[in-house]
Amino acid sequence: MRNTVAKILLVEDNEMNADMLSRRLIKAGHEVHLAQDGGQAVSMAESLLPDLVLMDISLPVFDGCEATRRIRANPTTQDIRVMALTAHALPFERTRAMEAGCNDYDTKPVDFERLQRKIAALLGG
User: Fold this and answer.
1) Is 2 domain-assigned?
2) What is the pLDDT along the chain (125 residues), one digit of tens a residue?
3) What is the residue range of 114's domain?
4) Contacts (Cβ under 8 Å, ≥6 apart) of 28
5) Most CB within 10 Å of its CB: which of 9, 48, 64, 83?
6) CATH, residue 41
7) Nearest Cα to 96, choosing from 79, 110, 84, 107?
């Protein structure tokens, strides 16, 4: 399977998780930018206009659902693909993320091959 190369905004407040996942994404050929909280996620989405935001849900400043709602509310960023990426695997958490405007949802720990397939599907690859 050919991987889709994308500009990705990775929103993750856990430094070890961010480091591990960003290294794997870069190795797969993606351009990766990091945000550590919901506020940074919203401002960086507007300035970078990434192809995809990988959004942790449990974040400081405001959570990933609120950050996603703000991205969706801005005409400049409303069409950016957002995937919730969270340790919260309960069905209501998925529903909450999708209702906030996420295009997809995946759980941690990350299955990298599955994540790559989801990225490709979201970006039309």
Assistant:
1) no
2) 345 689 999 999 999 999 999 999 999 999 999 999 999 999 999 999 999 999 999 999 999 999 999 999 999 999 999 999 988 778 888 999 999 999 999 999 999 999 999 999 999 86
3) 7-122
4) 3, 5, 116
5) 64
6) 3.40.50.2300
7) 84
> Number of structural domains, the chain?
1
Look at the block and give the residue holding tokens 């993606």: 30
Q: Are 4 and 125 in contact (CB under 8 A)?
A: yes
Strand partners, 33: 9
Residue 1 within any structural domain of the chain = no
Alpha helices in 11-125 (DSSP H): 15-27, 38-48, 64-73, 91-100, 112-122
Taking the whole predicted model, whether its pTM rises above 0.85 is answered as yes
Residue with tokens 């919203």: 42
In a domain, 45, yes or no: yes
Token couple for 8:
């990705």
Joined together, the tokens standing for residue 86 give 């969270």
Which sign, positive or negative, has the C-alpha torsion 116, 32, 110, 52? negative
Which of 23, 12, 3, 6 has its CA nearest to residue 84? 12
